[in-house]
């Protein structure tokens, strides 16, 4: 029996050394050390041995089992290392090769325009305010002198969520909210940029979702000349020092008097061309003196306080400044368009 165990050990070590894979090692383990393995088969004959021989054979069997187990574990480590070396060799990186350039992103053209406008007005003492996109009917319309059934509401076809909630049609509600927050006790000098929504058919110049920047200045002795001066600075800083502005009478329910502001066409210099439709001027924003009724509803005494408000669309400004022909380009995520203006 001792000779049988030694024979098993010798053959097992030889087979382990010749094994070329983990499956072959598992087969060897089962055939020798398993419940039906060769060592177990030999040990079944121990009943025929004398009491003196049994412990000797048992010790030899344990020694053979340990030697085979150690050899199996060592072979597993060798095979795993070989596999790892092959994988590392296959995945080797030649660090001497030039690196691949990683494309970098940049600010969206609209974001750049908005930040440029924000910086400009911050420099003139305005603060930035942000308001909710889902707005109440009161702040979106009534607080801005647009009561229920007012015909001017038709100018802003709206997305209603409930009878009292809607997606804001302009960022002007934040003007009313800010004045109410100040309780008619201090001056207001703010702009509010943000996304607005109106039910409109999307085409080259219209979108159901777009951005707006509204501005408000309320204090004692604020005059129309102050409004014109600030708008003149805005136009020259954004479009060039040679730009001229003009104010034309218009109508907005929340301002009185109301005006539209035009800038001189940068293409023709005011002489008239296809861009400005031969007029020499391009409309850019609406403005006016805050309606006394709006001041009253916000808690300000219109006999003491006065102010002006203005509203502009960053998409229109970007289209005029950079020659973009289709407003939909701002929202299509076309990388060719987006990267075109990184250095603009």
Radius of gyration, in angstroms, nearest whole number: 41 Å
Shape, please? elongated
Helix/strand/pairing class, anyone?
alpha+beta
Q: What is the CATH first-level class name of the largest domain?
A: Alpha Beta
Subcellular location: Cytoplasm
Catalytic activity: tRNA(Phe) + L-phenylalanine + ATP = L-phenylalanyl-tRNA(Phe) + AMP + diphosphate + H(+)
Pfam family, one: Phe_tRNA-synt_N
Keywords: Aminoacyl-tRNA synthetase, ATP-binding, Cytoplasm, Ligase, Magnesium, Metal-binding, Nucleotide-binding, Protein biosynthesis
Task: Give an account of the 3D structure.
With 344 residues, the protein is of the alpha+beta class. The protein folds into 2 domains: 89 residues, no CATH class; 232 residues, BirA Bifunctional Protein, domain 2 (2-Layer Sandwich). The chain is 40% helix and 20% strand. It is built from 11 helices and 10 strands. Strands 1-5-6-10-9-8-7 form a 7-stranded mixed β-sheet. It has a 3-stranded antiparallel β-sheet with strand order 2-4-3. Strand 3 and strand 4 form a beta hairpin. Helix 1 runs antiparallel to helix 2, helix 1 packs parallel to helix 4 and helix 5 packs across helix 10. The longest helix has 38 residues. The chain starts with a helix and ends with a helix.
């Amino acid at each position: 029996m001792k000779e049988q165990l030694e024979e098993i050990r010798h053959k097992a070590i030889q087979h382990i050394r010749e094994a070329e894979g983990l499956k072959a090692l598992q087969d060897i383990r089962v055939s020798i050390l398993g419940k039906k393995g060769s060592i177990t088969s030999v040990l079944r004959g121990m009943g025929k041995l004398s009491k003196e021989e049994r412990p000797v054979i048992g010790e030899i069997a344990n020694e053979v089992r340990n030697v085979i187990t150690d050899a199996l574990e060592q072979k597993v480590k060798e095979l795993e290392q070989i596999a790892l070396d092959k994988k590392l060799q296959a995945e080797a990186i030649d660090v001497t090769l030039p690196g691949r350039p990683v494309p970098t992103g940049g600010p969206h053209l609209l974001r750049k325009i908005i930040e440029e406008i924000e910086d400009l007005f911050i420099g003139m003492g305005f603060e930035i305010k942000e308001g909710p996109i889902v707005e109440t009917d009161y702040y979106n319309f009534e607080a801005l002198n647009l009561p229920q059934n007012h015909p001017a509401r038709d100018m802003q076809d709206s997305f209603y969520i409930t009878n009292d909630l809607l997606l804001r049609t302009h960022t002007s509600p934040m003007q009313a909210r800010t004045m109410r927050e100040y309780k008619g006790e201090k001056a207001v000098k703010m702009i509010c940029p943000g996304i607005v929504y109106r039910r409109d058919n999307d085409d080259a110049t219209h979108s159901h979702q777009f951005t707006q920047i509204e501005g408000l200045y309320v204090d004692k002795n604020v005059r129309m000349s102050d409004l014109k001066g600030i708008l003149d600075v805005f136009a020259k800083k954004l479009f060039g020092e040679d730009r001229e502005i003009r104010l034309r009478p218009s109508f907005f329910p929340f301002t009185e008097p109301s005006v539209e502001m035009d800038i001189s066409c940068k293409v023709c210099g005011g002489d008239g061309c296809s861009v400005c439709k031969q007029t020499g001027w391009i409309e850019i924003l609406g403005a006016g003196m805050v309606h006394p009724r709006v001041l009253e509803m916000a808690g300000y005494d219109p006999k003491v306080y006065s102010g002006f408000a203005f509203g502009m669309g960053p998409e229109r400004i970007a289209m005029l400044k950079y020659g973009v022909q289709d407003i939909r380009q701002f929202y299509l995520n076309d990388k060719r368009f987006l990267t075109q203006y990184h250095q603009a």
